[in-house]
């Protein structure tokens, strides 16, 4: 340990003694873990938050989903599309370009060459407009979210949010997440600001986020 570090820690310990600070402090965790909001109210709140974050939101039924996905891909002139390997290939019926499942063995840097990627999600919090992706959430289930890089490297992300997976608050949302697997939390397209508050999009992920709220 360096002398500077020793000095800093020593001062902290002395300050704690003077303040009579205990080694540990008990905190009560009384989080709201359930909501009485109905399905329609949850949908309205989620869509409102996503639109406010500048995401494009498309509401549709499961039967309409393939057509809506293809429509968006054509409207944005996408030719090369990668999708989470657990998604059905039939989602891209009618697509004139190339749609292929992503493979974890492929260099993730090549994902930047794709015009768009398509994934599903595991849970979303309507209150904050936050969508959660996790890889291989079900031990024997499909990888509907794909690897983390699939939703981070490309510039355009089409994300499916089934209404059955939408909850109201963040505590509820975290209760649905597998704590032993990495999670990607998305609240709108990637955006950040520099010290002069100049907004820059696409630095930490896709700048174009299209969310399909499926009911």
From TrEMBL:
InterPro entries: FTHF_cligase-like_sf, LUD_dom, NagB/RpiA_transferase-like
Gene3D superfamilies (UniProt xref): NagB/RpiA/CoA transferase-like
Domain LUD: start-end pairs: 87-214
Xref: SUPFAM superfamilies: NagB/RpiA/CoA transferase-like
Entry protein name: LUD domain-containing protein
Organism whose genome encodes this protein: Corynebacterium genitalium ATCC 33030
